[in-house]
Amino acid sequence: MIVRPFRLSDADTVVGWFKTAREVATWGSPARRFPLDTVEIAGFFAETGGERPAKRMWIGEDANGHAAATATTFLNWDQAIARMALIGVDPACRGQGLALPFLRDVVDATMDSAPFARLELNVYTFNEPAIRTYERLGFVREGVHRSSARFGSERWDTAHMAMLRDEWEAERAGRSIASTR
């Protein structure tokens, strides 16, 4: 998996991954429009420029150069907090073990880019595969916001997870030690 900055031309590929309103809501939130369109993604992309961007967007390419995963980090420079969001994997690539290495690289790039004290994310509690991936990355569940999102007649609970800088540094050091064995 190669991780690179998102290009606006990637938007056409990413919008094709979400075939239902539920998929869009699970990816972004029930506030996202369905069908997802490139205009909405272009709005996020517009905030990625400059020395201290509000967002960074990422694409993970598989060995064939196919965009297989995406994530966005929202950056609060004043509070030294980053938040990962809009995490998605091409449905054709799910179950292949791509999410973990992709997200590990996104976490590393985010934490390497500035002295962020904290990296956090929200995930709906029914998304158990994503939660397992985030826990394997070193994220800690800090709590659940019950009935925090409405999708149609359903109410969804949102788990709040985070990783502190020292936890990331320890996890990264452990990877370095393991790779020398």
Secondary-structure blueprint:
Elements: E1 2-5, H1 11-15, H2 21-27, H3 38-45, E2 55-61, E3 67-76, E4 81-89, H4 99-113, E5 118-124, H5 128-137, E6 140-151, E7 154-164, H6 165-180
Parallel strand pairs: 4-5
Antiparallel strand pairs: 1-2, 2-3, 3-4, 5-7, 6-7
Please name the defining characteristics of this protein:
181 residues, 6 helices, globular, Aminopeptidase, 7-stranded mixed beta sheet
Describe the structure.
By secondary structure, the protein is an alpha+beta fold. It has one domain: 3-Layer(aba) Sandwich (Aminopeptidase). A seven-stranded mixed β-sheet has the order 1-2-3-4-5-7-6. Helix 4 crosses helix 5. It is globular. Keywords: Transferase. This is GNAT family N-acetyltransferase.
Q: What's this entry about, in short?
A:
By secondary structure, the chain is an alpha+beta fold. The protein is 34% helix and 33% strand.
Rg of Cα set: 16 Å
Q: State which percent range the strand residues make up.
A: 25-35%
* Shape estimate: globular
User: Reading side by side through the largest sheet, how are the strands ordered?
Assistant: 1-2-3-4-5-7-6
Number of strands: 7
Taking pLDDT < 50 over at least 5 consecutive residues as the criterion, the unreliable ranges are none
CATH homologous superfamily? Answer: Gcn5-related N-acetyltransferase (GNAT)
Helix and strand sequence: EHHHEEEHEHEEH
Domain module count: 1
* Secondary-structure arrangement, i.e. CATH architecture: 3-Layer(aba) Sandwich
**How helical, in percent, are the residues?**
25-40%
Given the helix and strand composition, which structural class is it?
Answer: alpha+beta
